[in-house]
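Many introductory courses stop at the sequence. We go one step further.
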Amino acid sequence: MGLYAGLFDGDASEHFILPAQRYAYLHVVCDTPVAAEPRHNGAAQPYDDYW
């Protein structure tokens, strides 16, 4: 858990991201670009089912 907090917030020894905050961050970073991409020929995007 500390490792991931360090990745997202710089230094895990000084900062800690709550799970809800981390999930919101991942949702914005990972889900929004996929949703914003135009769909071609009605095919699903590769990462639609991951988040």
